[in-house]
Amino acid sequence: MNRSLLVALAAALLSCESVNEYTGSLPPLKLVLYSFIEADSLVCLDVWQTRHFSDEFSAPPTNVTGEVYINGQLAGDLRPVTSMTFGSRLRYLADARPRPGDHVRVAVRADGLQEAQGEVTLPLESVPIRVDSTLVGRPDKIEQARYAIHINDKARERHYYRLVVETQTYDLVDDLQYSLASAYAFNPENDPLLIGGNHTWVNEDVVPNRYRIFTNETFEGVGYTMRVSVGARNTYRFEYQSDGHTVTQRQVMRHRVKLIRIDPDSYLHLKSLMLLELEQGVMEPVQVHTNVRGGAGVIGYVLPSVVTFEMPETEMVEVPFGY
C-alpha cells in the first residue's frame, strides 16, 4: 500500500468522526459518606455528593442532617465542624463514643437527595505488634531507620490491615510544641503483602498497593514479620538567648509505625479505588465498592496498634538562622 493511499484512508476515517450531544436522562445525585470509626473516639463523618460527568465540580449538599445510632439507640446528632471544610466536602461530628464491640449506624439526609445509611460493628481488640528498629548512619548523623514489624495475628479468621509509617517533625521550645508536620512515604522493601504481589490480588502484576493494605490470608494463625525502611535524621538540640534568658529548643523527628486493622468493606473500597486509578478506556468500568445504602462511600472502622520511635538526640553546634 503506497503512501498516498494511506493518507487517503486516514482522511476518510477522520471524516467519519462526529460529536453527538448526550440526550439521555442523568441518574440522580447521591450522598457520599466517609467515616472510619475508632472505639472510644467521637464519630467523625465527611459528607459530599456525587456529580455527573458533564459537571465541572461537585457542589456541597445543603441542609445536611443526620444521626448516629449505637446498638440501635440514638447516640447523637451530627453537627458541622465549621473550621473543617474541604472544597465540596463537609465534615460533621457526633457526640457519640462507641465502645469495642458496638454496632454503629449513621443516617444522613440533605435537600433533594435520598437518605444514605451505613453501618459497621467495631472489633473487640486490636492485634498486638512488636517493632524492632535499626538505625543506619553514624550516631550523630542518622540517615535511615529500618523496622522489623512482628504481627502477632494468631487468629483463625480473616483480618484486614493497613500499614502506615508516619514521620513527624516538630519544634519543642521550653516544652511547648510548634510546627508539627507529617509525611507518610516509606520503602516497603519488596514485601509481597505491601507491594501487592501475592495471590490475594487481582491483576497482581500491575496493581500497585499504594494504600499498603493486606490480609492475613497467607499467615492466618501463625503471625508474620514485614520489614520497611524510611529516611531519618537526628533530633537536634540547641540553645539561644532571648529576652535575657536561655531558651532550649529541640527539632524533633519521630516515626509512628501504625498497623491499622480495618473492616472488610474499607479494604474492598480502597482496593477498588486503586483499580479505578488504573482504569483505561478499553477496560471494563471499575465498580467502586461501597457499603452505604442509598449513597456511596464507606462507613468502616480503624483499630490501630502504634509504636513510636524518637530519633536519637544530638547537639547542634551552630544555631539555625533566625534564632
- The oligomeric status of these chains comes to single chain
Quickly give the structural class: mainly beta
Overall pLDDT metric: 85
CATH class value of the largest domain: Mainly Beta
The count of DSSP E runs of length 2 or more, i.e. the number of strands, is 17
What is the count of structural domains?
A: 2
- Gross morphology is globular
* CATH topology name of the largest domain: Immunoglobulin-like
Rg, rounded, reads: 25 Å
Strand content range: over 45%
Detailed description of the structure:
By secondary structure, the chain is mainly beta. It has 2 domains: 31-121, Immunoglobulin-like (Sandwich), CATH 2.60.40; 129-287 and 302-315, Sandwich (Immunoglobulin-like). 10% of the residues lie in helices and 48% in strands. The protein has 3 helices and 17 strands. The chain has helices spanning 3-15, 192-195, 264-277, and strands at 31-37, 43-49, 65-70, 73-86, 89-94, 103-110, 113-121, 129-138, 141-151, 160-173, 176-183, 213-215, 224-231, 235-242, 245-262, 295-310, 313-315. The strands form 2 sheets. Strands 1, 2, 3, 4, 5, 6, 7, 10, 11, 12, 14, 15, 16 and 17 form a 14-stranded mixed beta sheet that branches. It has a 3-stranded antiparallel beta sheet with strand order 8-9-13, with no helix packed on it. A hairpin with a 2-residue loop joins β14 and β15. The longest helix is centred in the last third of the chain and has 14 residues, at 264-277. It is globular and about 65 Å long.
